[in-house]
Amino acid sequence: MTTLARGADTLTRDALAVLQPGFAGTTAPDWLLRRLGEGLASVGLFGRNIVTASQLSNLTAQLRAERDDVLVAIDEEGGDVTRLEVRTGSSFPGNFALGAVDDVSLTHQVAAELGRRLAACGVNLNWAPSADVNSNAENPVIGVRSFGAAPELVARHTAAYVGGLQSAGVAACTKHFPGHGDTAVDSHHALPRIDVDLQTLTNRELSPFRAAFAAGTRAVMSAHILVPALDPEFPATLSRRILTGLLREELGYTGLIVTDGMEMQAIAATYGIERGSVLAIAAGADAICVGGGLADDETVRRLRDALVTAVRTGELPEERLADAAARVRSLAEWTASAARAAAGQEAGTGESPRPDIGLVAARRALTVTRSETYTPITQPPYVAAFTPVANIAVGAETPWGVAAEVARLLPGTKTGSFSDAATDGSWSGTAVSIGREVVRAAGSRPLVAVVRDEHRHPWMAEALDVLLAARPDTIVVEMGIPQSPPRGALHIATHGAARVCGVAAAEVIAGA
């Protein structure tokens, strides 16, 4: 089919249809509504767009007044990565906590409840779950976003999550294909590389994705990672070998392929977002996610024009762009029918929502280790949070920790936050000072130290050494991956830093 036969308007509409842009503000800007009328078929939501559930419902209704079949996507993993509750912390524990419990029925229930809340707000595509096997404990961007380090565990919970989410009529987008778990670099900042053999990739990284396909995931998100065993030249998002050869032809996946955010430095700093978007569609991607940091009409125009120009110059086959646009529209049709089916099924079975399921899961995910000398605290403590730099996927605006929840249960609780931000990576001395300052600030109060991935932050471990030497009665709460051995009079591993994880830990601390 030639460009001339299809007409420029159809070509332009197809180019807009494959974009999933974000935007600024809590109401839809005029430019976005205009683009929806011109053919834009998807919109991505982030924390900056959401204040309350009712406001979000009004926003999605505003979008659908312009285009009733629009795909409204969100990055709502639950746990550490939340957009619905970006200002308060999530009511759901994340994947790692669910993997720690290892009850697939519970994972299904959590995902179903999360899906119901999304659907009630008008969201019909969730960029979740993460199916990455977190085989590298030093991974700076996946961590507790993964169900765990064992492929079989990750596979069964990925399938359960997909099933639960889609039972609510919300399309799952399983990520980050072919697997982002064995990286020590954050693709928001640079291009990670995974140097393992093909057999390892097949047995480890691909296992959860195969489970997701079997569970019927409607979408898959590509990773901005270089995997030489699969393609020594192009990162997965831009690789025809990976997206078409492996994902489509070898694994038989037929659903929507969405890119990770094209403004991430792994792509933007190497290929640029326009060139990267053309290469991604040519490689087999169907939708271009952009908007985590770029959220304006100029970005949409540039990407649209880059795709149209690539077709007209022969660099991008028009049939490939048309196929990608058709897959986007097909998913929109599925979400409409799935939403009706979910509403009918819930009405027919009388099944009630489970607003408490997140707390139930968070409580079950706790691992509590008590020393022989531990005695429960009976007076308001001092809670010291050892705060690492947040990764971009999580965001710095979402609160975490146990201080607020402990203060609710034990009024009069005092708190402090400590980090190595001023050390420029030189921990010696400064970490000791942090430990001493915490001891001084606590005084005679019971002491609670809250850490997050202690094993990845030497300053944190050293400060905790100082703290425990002076105050062996300290309660330690680990809200990341509990890689370091339990220590302290009481050690609580929450397996995630969601608000609900803090609630569960505070209950143990206060003896509730």
In a nutshell, what does this entry contain?
By secondary structure, this protein is of the alpha/beta class. The chain is built from 18 helices and 14 strands.
Enumerate the strands of the largest sheet in spatial order, edge to edge or round the barrel: 2-3-4-5-6-7
Rg computed from alpha carbons, rounded to a whole number of angstroms: 23 Å
Query: How far apart lie the N and C ends?
Result: 68 Å
Strand content: 5-15%
Number of β-strand runs: 14
- Which term fits the overall shape? globular
* Overall average residue pLDDT: 92
Helicity, as a percent range: 40-55%
Structural class designation: alpha/beta
List the helices and strands and how they pair.
Layout: H1 3-6, H2 8-17, E1 19-21, H3 30-38, E2 42-45, H4 53-66, E3 71-74, H5 95-101, H6 104-120, E4 125-126, H7 151-167, E5 171-177, H8 198-214, E6 219-222, H9 240-250, E7 256-258, H10 265-268, H11 273-283, E8 288-290, H12 297-312, H13 318-349, H14 357-365, E9 367-370, E10 382-386, H15 403-409, E11 414-418, H16 430-442, E12 447-451, H17 458-470, E13 475-478, E14 490-493, H18 499-509
Parallel strand pairs: 1-8, 2-3, 3-4, 4-5, 5-6, 6-7, 10-11, 10-12, 12-13, 13-14
Antiparallel strand pairs: 9-14
Helix pairs in contact: 2-12, 2-13, 5-14, 6-7, 7-8, 11-12, 14-18, 15-18, 16-17
